[in-house]
Amino acid sequence: MKVKIHTTLGDITVRLYDQTPLHRDNFIKLVKEGYYDGTLFHRVIKDFMVQGGDPDSKGAPKGKSLGTGGPGYTVPAEIKPDLFHKRGALAAARQGDEVNPQRNSSGSQFYIVWGQVYSEGQLKQLSRQMELMLKQQIFNTLAASHRAEIFQLRKDRNHAGIQELQDKLVDETEARFRAMKESGAQTGLSDEQTRLYTTVGGTPHLDGQYTVFGEVEEGLEVVGKIQDSATGASDRPLEDIVMEMTVVE
Prior knowledge:
- This protein is an alpha+beta fold.
- The chain has two domains: about 1-115 and about 200-249, Cyclophilin; about 135-180.
- Helix content is about 35%, strand content about 20%.
- It contains six helices and ten strands; from the N terminus they run E-E-H-E-E-E-E-E-E-H-H-H-H-E-H-E.
- The chain has helices at about 20-35, 120-145, 145-155, 160-180, 190-200, 220-225, and strands at about 1-5, 10-15, 40-45, 50, 75, 90, 105, 110-115, 210-220, 245-249.
- It has an eight-stranded antiparallel β-sheet with strand order 3-4-8-6-9-2-1-10.
- A hairpin with a 2-residue loop joins strand 1 (about 1-5) and strand 2.
- The N and C termini lie close together (about 10 Å).
């Protein structure tokens, strides 16, 4: 299914993925209800992305901070390993992992990726950083399961015991990381990601973190105009960029 986003800077047509039916159906439902009509692209970051879908942005006075509004529900994550944050990708905004470990999406807020084109060297460095972040996540999960033991060791000031446990957790982290790689699980950037981000461009560090549920089919140059807009506080464009949406039958 497709949706046309009419903006004050031009029209953008997005195609919604069938691989993410919860997000597809929710987006179509809101569009048909006129939910997005009159809302703004309220958060714009050059060379990164443009974000909209906050109902509180309708008629919002200049300078008002936006970005917390929604329909009062979230959408379960549909993060797919083969749907990437390439330039033009349509993805769902969400709250951070600290309050949203399931990575559920906002019920209405979305963003369209702009990003940048990377060199192979830049992506190799990013891939190494992703691996380090994954190892840190594994270590943190293991440490959380030993929270009571760590607390007691610290209470007893048992420094040798703390070091022994830390070494044990590091070894277990490396073992789990190796097992993930051997099983074929993604730990860094794939060949397809490398191809996309060195040609089309995008924001590879967001892959696996947010649900991508569509892509721009027409009007990518309009997204380029929006992301190039002058912004003020909270990355809100100085000149309102208003949208309306219609389902393309």
